[in-house]
Amino acid sequence: MPLPSSVGDLSPVKSLPLDRTLRAWLLSDGSLSRRLALSFGGFEVQVLNQGTAPATDAELRLLRAHATRGLQVQRCHVREVVLWGDGQALVHARSVLPAVQARLTWRAVRGLAQRPLADLLFGLHAARCKRLGSLRESPLRARRRGGKLGWADHPLWSRRSVFTRRGVPLLVTEWFAPAVRTHAPGLHARSGHLSHR
User: pTM for this structure?
Assistant: First the structure.
């Protein structure tokens, strides 16, 4: 069952009252999956759902704002996953793109299966990334999402980014579990094995 996906007004991370470790995760660049694997070990991707699905009004506005002129954004292709490390859920991620582009510019998304989206975003033909900001969820939304993932009764922070390839946007929202505060983001290495569920 899809988790609630609404994210309200975003703020630049540097302006938010955060502890050092959480700030580092929200500001981390490159592949989040690889950083989680280096920091926690036992990295796995659990796919919750993927396919044509409704997008929120906020998601549609952001997709349209970052699309090239003339690109229609009506129906959307949505992929939701949980990123696991060291046996615990660390990040819930939701990616949204125009449905027709899941068979064109972003067709590789449909074949990811249990591989992380980062394999596509930061691979040989990397997409252009723009960080849109971060947000602390309201207590109600934090309880709704946290209750499903075992993060109840904790503040819940998210960040949102848009990746663009050939003028076609792919919007990614990532919600970070409280457990990420126990480890600083791992440094990127030239090689490293990621295991997948």
Answer: 0.84
